[in-house]
Specification:
Length: 411
């Protein structure tokens, strides 16, 4: 979605600067080129060499480089990019932006630009809620600066609250939202989608549960990719440790029963992508209190009952059936054969098959090798990042609806 887009990333001085390295990687995965400006204080947290290695471009920091300034380097830097991103946006650099200062290269570039600016704040909760910062943020918003975050969470200073910088994937999603505004590049506009993601937890007693190792990374990436192509997406997520995607309505659930109820509550939809790793079984009669271990007694028996089949339920013929239902098959053996069988048994339109055998170990990783199984055959996709798998799948979905997406042209 960001192919051909040029990002000028300004890295200011805060502990969250380490996230800028991951942000560069995320942006380049999506096709963007990244050039970095590193402040003097930012260099206390990340090195120019690290930024240069990941961006594969020179890192700028010196306001008075004779070579650059003979060509008005700070002006050129501010105008060459499609978007300026300040991450982390510290209280200091936002104050200097609000005051119109130009005392270093970063501040000067921000003052000289005629391009949009996105800031990702990161600071202590008291600094974020201080009246001076609140006023500065309001001033910058009035001038057209865009913001992503901050999030609530634990901080390096051992405090908790708003001020934690958004995750790199969230910032990348916000960048896509700013740089891909044209309706022609949102071919799924007007389509309503439900995506399931992550594991489910099936209670044995109030402290124990049945679950699996799903991280939710693939399902969350699919929700983001569909939203980037214009779809109105509801993400139904089991318990995961990753942030909710930007621009997506997220419903948090624990059990398979809750996940099915949330999918049905979404109402009439055009598309369902069931990427969640739903537990096949649950405890038939969960204990109301913690099951106690008794000395010398054998382990208690747990009677299991089948969980509702979310994919089969959504695939059931009828007026409420989505026009396209996509399931996932995580297999440890006979991958394609099992996926073909699953598509026929569940009644869905497509199955995305991925190998989760111990030798491959895709749960929690950043890459995936999948096969797209449909009535017309099997497509073998190369090993891709989960973000790239999501974008390719979103592109295929757009083509299915007869809407050629820009994302497909890059393949």
């Amino acid at each position: 979605m960001l192919k051909g887009k040029r990002i000028l990333l300004i890295v200011a001085g805060g502990i969250a600067a380490f996230k800028s390295l991951e942000l560069i990687r995320r942006l380049r995965e999506r096709g963007a080129s990244v050039r970095c400006v590193l402040t003097e204080s930012g260099a206390k947290f990340v090195t120019p060499l690290s930024l240069q290695a990941l961006s594969e471009d020179r890192v700028y920091s010196d306001m008075f480089s004779l070579t650059d300034e003979s060509e008005m380097g700070h002006i050129q830097l501010s105008r060459d990019a499609d978007l300026l991103v300040v991450a982390p946006a510290t209280a200091d650099i936002m104050a200097r932006m609000a005051s119109g200062m130009a005392d270093d290269l970063a501040a000067t570039v921000l003052l000289a630009t005629d391009k949009p600016v996105l800031a990702a704040p990161a600071m202590n909760v008291r600094m974020w809620t201080h009246a001076a910062t609140v006023a500065n943020v309001q001033t910058l918003k009035q001038r057209g600066v865009h913001f992503v975050g901050p999030n609530d969470g634990a901080m390096a200073c051992n405090e908790f609250g708003p001020g934690r910088m958004s995750e790199p994937s969230e910032i990348a999603d916000a960048i896509e939202g700013l740089l891909v505004p044209a309706a022609a590049e949102r071919p799924l506009a007007g389509k309503r989608a439900v995506v399931t993601s992550g594991p489910t937890r099936e209670a044995i007693d109030p402290v124990r549960y049945i679950s699996n190792h799903s991280s939710g990374k693939q399902g969350h990436a699919i929700a983001s990719a569909l939203a980037a192509l214009g779809a109105d997406v509801t993400l139904v997520s089991g318990p995961v440790a990753i942030a909710d995607p930007v621009g997506v309505a997220t419903v948090h659930v624990d059990s398979a029963d809750q996940m099915l109820a949330a999918c049905l509550a979404a109402g009439r939809i055009d598309l369902a992508v069931c990427a969640a790793a739903v537990a096949d079984w649950k405890a038939a009669r969960p204990a109301g209190s913690k099951i106690k271990k008794k000395a010398g007694a054998p382990p208690p028996g747990i009677e299991l009952a089948p969980n509702p089949d979310i994919l089969a339920t959504l695939s059931k013929p009828g007026p409420q059936r989505p026009a396209l239902v996509v399931g996932f098959a995580a297999e440890t053996e006979n991958l394609v054969a099992n996926a073909i069988d699953k598509r026929q048994r569940k009644g869905c339109d497509w199955i995305v098959a991925n190998d989760v055998s111990p030798a491959v170990g895709t749960f929690g990783s950043e890459r995936n090798t999948v096969h797209l199984v449909s009535a017309s055959g099997v497509e073998d996709w190369p090993t891709l990042t989960k973000g790239e798998v999501a974008m390719r799948l979103a592109g295929r979905i757009a083509l299915h609806f007869g809407l050629p997406p820009k994302a497909e042209a890059a393949e």
